[in-house]
Amino acid sequence: MPAVANPAVDTPSVQATQAAVDDILAELFARLGDRQDQLLPMLHGLQDSAGYIPPDRVPAIAAHFNLSRAEVHGVITFYHYFRTEPPPRCVVQVCRAEACQSMGSDSLLEHAERTLGCGLHGRSADGAFGLEPVYCLGQCASAPALTINEAVFARVSPARFDALMAAAMPREAV
Ligand code: FES
């Protein structure tokens, strides 16, 4: 069984200030250059460092790569992975791949949806929790699996889900 992490403690804040986003962009522009095949690495780097891709930075990205804003926007919206708003403080990803489905991930997902009050790709009403699908976490022999702020947990029953969530993000701390 994987080590139990406390995502609220172990995961650094990924939400950058506006000034920090400018610094991140400048570093990425300098490091990756302006070849158009570097657009995807740039978007990944920006999201990894800033937590999301601020829509108001699309014009600068487009200008850097000599692309239209529509072309950059098209790439961002094509990939579900990219976010255009700050991420929730706690992101739960439930594995939807075959081994986990055969071991009860459907009911685990239903429990997560009821508990968080949102469906897949949604957010809880207070915006603190996000629920996303993921496809295989390398824990097939210990299914069903999920992640909480990128920490992987296996053999997750609904009761264990409740305990993990309480440890990760006590409601009074949200
Ligand atoms: S199918 Fe879920 S961890 Fe592999």
Automatic annotation (TrEMBL):
Keywords: 2Fe-2S, Iron, Iron-sulfur, Metal-binding
Cofactor(s) the protein needs: [2Fe-2S] cluster
Annotated GO MF terms: 2 iron, 2 sulfur cluster binding; metal ion binding; oxidoreductase activity
Cofactor comment: Binds 1 [2Fe-2S] cluster.
Name under which the protein is recorded: Formate dehydrogenase subunit gamma
Family: Belongs to the complex I 24 kDa subunit family.
Organism: Pseudoduganella albidiflava
UniProt entry tagged with the keyword Membrane: no
InterPro entries according to UniProt: NADP_DH_HndA-like (IPR028431), NuoE-like (IPR002023), NuoE_N (IPR041921), Thioredoxin-like_sf (IPR036249)
Organism superkingdom: Bacteria
Record Pfam families: 2Fe-2S_thioredx
Binding site for [2Fe-2S] cluster: C95, C100, C136, C140
Keyword presence, Iron: yes
